[in-house]
Specification:
4 helices; alpha+beta; Trna Endonuclease, Chain: A, domain 1
Length: 163
């Protein structure tokens, strides 16, 4: 039997996963919090971008200092951006991302983090990459970048050149 807290956490993780996929990321979910990260995401719009590791926390959830530092260390070893997706109790915003920028110290009231935007001009960067590969992008390439196809599983990756 699934507990209500587990179900809420899973729904939140899936909501974050869906939003990231809609923004052009390929996202893998570690169900049941069995890994150091709830989500690992690869930017399909900017393949050279660093991978992203996400810990999803509900409004009552916190990370211990040890868990925070371990998450930061593993992300650094993988070359990934460590993010927290924090559920926002305000009705107008579902959640926000915070990038972990440093280690936490025991009993310190401060958290080394900063806001992180899911889509900070990625469309422009992707178009710049296309232009850099050979000049003016074709209308088809512009449409592909702006459409941001949803990539939900590996079976859609039959032709990597289409992305």
């Amino acid at each position: 039997m699934t507990s209500t807290a587990y179900r809420r956490a899973a729904e939140f993780e899936n909501r974050v996963k869906d939003d990231m996929e809609d923004a052009g990321y390929f996202v893998m979910r570690s169900a049941g919090s069995k890994g150091v990260a709830d989500l690992v995401a690869l930017d399909m719009l900017l393949p050279a971008a660093r991978p992203v590791m996400v810990q999803c926390k509900l409004d009552t959830g916190t990370m211990s200092v040890d868990a925070w530092n371990r998450f930061l260390d593993v992300a650094a070893l993988c070359g990934a951006v460590p993010l927290l997706a924090l559920e926002d109790p305000k009705p107008l915003r579902n959640y926000s991302f915070m990038e972990i920028t440093g280690r936490r110290m025991p009993r310190s009231p401060t958290k080394p983090w900063r806001p992180w935007d899911l889509n900070p001009g990625r469309d422009a960067l992707a178009l710049d990459a296309i232009v850099g590969r050979g000049g003016v992008p074709h209308e088809e390439e512009i449409r592909r970048v702006l459409a941001r196809p949803r990539i939900s599983d590996l079976s859609t990756l039959t032709n990597p050149d289409q992305y």
